[in-house]
Amino acid sequence: MSEAANLQRAQAQSWAEPGSRHDRLIGLLKIGLPAAVGVIAAIFLAVPLTKQQEVSFILDKKDVSRAEERMKIEAARYSGTDNEGQPFVLVANRAVQQTSEVPIVDISGMLARLGLKEGPATIQALRGRYDLDKQQVAINGPVRVSGPEGEQLVTRDVLLDLRSRQVRSTGQIAGRMPVGSFDAASMAADLGTKQVALTGGVTGEVKLGTFAASRMRADLDRRIVVLDGGARLKIVPGTVR
Q1: pLDDT in tens, 97-106
Q2: Membrane-spanning residues where (predicted)?
């Protein structure tokens, strides 16, 4: 064997000996390569989160109940029973609840039906705010109440309590009933007994003429009007014979 070949062989044996540079390099690669693979994998996993066009989120059930998004329902229907055990139903063409934490529903195209002994009474309004907990509707605008025997109360801006079957004004009130038209500071009506009470500078008109009083009570069932407190009635000539 030539001297050059012997030198090359000796160098190869020295490179492969334990503790040589080759041996130390292999030891470093055994540690470094797995670590480098882990770093590269972490980079690839993190890249999708850094892109602006992609959004990553976690949805928690506890957060769902506090969502700020509004809930919209077409042709909503609510039902229950009043304090007398009679059923009531409220339907709306549209209902919007701002948040599930607040039990208030904005409704439009409202029709409520209350069960009475003589038959159902209906309440129609264009819009209102329905309190799901109190079972009350704050009606904003015109409202028409129709009784089972043709009784009617037409007015505006009232609070309807479905449980107690009471209708109360929320401010200055005006409207008409079968017994005549009226204008007063406040009104309270019991749909079950068909009694209407007006207070505060009541004025109006009946078949006999115009009237004014501090208070007025009307029985829609019996068609009777009672004026109280400085009552004055101006009779139209020819109406009394």
Answers
A1: 888 788 899 9
A2: 25-47
